[in-house]
Design a protein that fits this description.
By secondary structure, this protein is α+β, with helices and mostly antiparallel strands. The chain is built from 12 helices and 10 strands. Helix 4 runs parallel beside helix 8 and helix 9 packs antiparallel against helix 10. The chain is globular and about 80 Å long.
Amino acid sequence: MRRTLFNEDHEAFRETIRAFIEAEVVPVFGEWEDAGHPPRDFYRKLGELGVLGIEVPEEYGGAGETSFKYQAVVSEECARAGVSFGGYSVHVNLVLPYLLKYGSDEQKKRWLPPFASGEMMTAIAMTEPGTGSDLAGMRTTARRDGDHYVLNGAKTFITGGVLADRVLVVARTSPAAPENRRTGLSILAVDTASEGYTVGRKLEKIGLRSSDTAELSFSDVRVPAEDLLGEEGRGFEYLTHNLAEERLGIATSSYASAAAAVEFARQYVQDRTVFGKTVSSFQNTKFVLAECATEVEAARSLVDRCIEALDAGELTAADAAVAKLFCTEVQGRVVDKCLQLHGGYGYILEYPIARLYADARVTRIYGGTSEVLKTIIAKDLQV
């Protein structure tokens, strides 16, 4: 079906990203997976290309674009090539919205120029050992001491945590109110060079192996009070504000992954022969690809509608939950079927379908598990 989401500017941007991926990422992507992250200089290259600063206001060195469509293009082109940009999506899709909405003018002047250039990479630290999705149950604390906060605690599953220069750490700055456990949380933008800040293990994952995921610990880390993001005690409110965009980002990359899987499988079955015939000539192959293409088309239509809603300021939490739930489930089914069409080669990591398969599993977990999303959707239905 004809797609109307993108205009000429988006397509020109797509060509730039596609050429950059072919030249700078594809030849070395295996090395990134072995290392567990891209080299630090790669993010500076993204900065020079203008990719990190697309949504950063012009006065801070960015392009000042407000549309999510440019990020959708990046997701689609990375999936198309079977690669990723490491911690890029956390930096741009998760952290930047917090800085733009809750950062003071002084903070924006300090942080946004290096953010856009790639000189300062960022991450966000919410999840703690033993708490999972229960953000209100976090135990990391930040005690006010004069013009500083003293930070103590630990975080885990922090994407981009190994290379980050500044991390948005969610901590409890006051005890929770008995009637509302969500009170008393704040967000501190912590300099990772601070004394007492420690990067622990780089966690080994079954997928997303070019994206560093780390454990972090804080032992009496002194954080200047001017690095508090927004107002003290409103952290939980801030976190929920950005969940819709975060979940749409995951839905977009999941749709793109499914679309890429269909294309990889389509090419493979046309080249591969079995019993003297191409695999594509068998009716089962045709039917499987037809099923997958249909699911991908449905996911794309949903994603496109949600992107338009986000740009218009109309995307609700329930809308984003629907998009993430549907697209990640489609991704899981489609990538699995496309791997099956590859036969034994689908299980070999040199084939991109194998990486897509390993990467796909986590999308039904992070950013809100499928079970949590069903709860949100059901609540919206008033059942």
